[in-house]
Amino acid sequence: KQSVLWERLRRRSTVVAEAATRSTSDAGEAAGDEEEDEDPLSFPWHGGLGSQFMWFLSAPLLVVFIYCIPDPKKKGMAWVAFFMSIAWIGVFSYYMVLWAEIIGATLGIPTVVMGLVFLAAGTSVPDLLSSMIVAQHGQGDMAVSSSIGSNIFDVLVGLPLPWMLYNMIKSKPVTVVSGTTLPLSIGMLMAMLVAVISTIALMNWTMYKSMAYVMFAMYAVFLGVSLWTADWNCA
């Protein structure tokens, strides 16, 4: 009798386990279908004011990305989506710089200051996010090298490439670049690079909170000197 009872309990537990597995898999598939079917343009009625405000800010960009860039998951559309994304980044960058110049001219702020404070901070957000992600995974060397490498790429590729294209199209050199404070900026850039490497070396190549405070202080010094040497009369 005991063997029969144990056999019945075993069969019943097996049936219950199989039913639970099926229900879990069905729930996962339903949740996946809901996520795929969820419209990114749907207004967050049940969200807070913060989420609704962010929806109003991101809705124009979402419309552009959804209807003007093909789905990279479709066959043969990955490269098309990649190059169209780069093209839209160029369009947004052009208007970002244009609007920054207009705001600076309206408020009496030089273009150099707008570039150092606002444009530099805005374009560095992707570097900040990528550095945070890799640092959280314990890849501190990748976080630091990514930040330094992106700035080197900007200086050695991001600046000369549009100048070269301008010279090739217009057949004349670029003469609208103001370089009155360029030697000082380059000198400070080299000094900050040496200071950052020295700080990391003094802390045994380990990222502590104190390193963040030191780098914040160095950025404050750089920003203060740049604002102090800027020509505010040309605004």
Automatic annotation (TrEMBL):
Pfam families: Na_Ca_ex. It is found in: Membrane. Residues 17-40 are annotated as: Disordered. It is a multi-pass membrane protein. Residues 31-40 have a biased composition (Acidic residues). InterPro entries: K/Na/Ca-exchanger (IPR004481), NaCa_Exmemb (IPR004837), NCX_ion-bd_dom_sf (IPR044880). GO terms for biological process: intracellular calcium ion homeostasis. It comes from the Eukaryota. The keyword rRNA processing does not apply. The keyword Membrane applies. Keywords: Antiport, Calcium, Calcium transport, Ion transport, Membrane, Potassium, Potassium transport, Signal, Sodium, Sodium transport, Symport, Transmembrane, Transmembrane helix, Transport. One of its GO terms (molecular function) is calcium, potassium:sodium antiporter activity. The chain crosses the membrane at residues 49-69, 76-96, 102-121, 142-166, 186-205, 212-230. Its main location: membrane. One of its GO terms (cellular component) is plasma membrane. Residues 78-228 form the Sodium/calcium exchanger membrane region domain. Belongs to the Ca(2+):cation antiporter (CaCA) (TC 2.A.19) family. SLC24A subfamily. This is Sodium/calcium exchanger membrane region domain-containing protein.
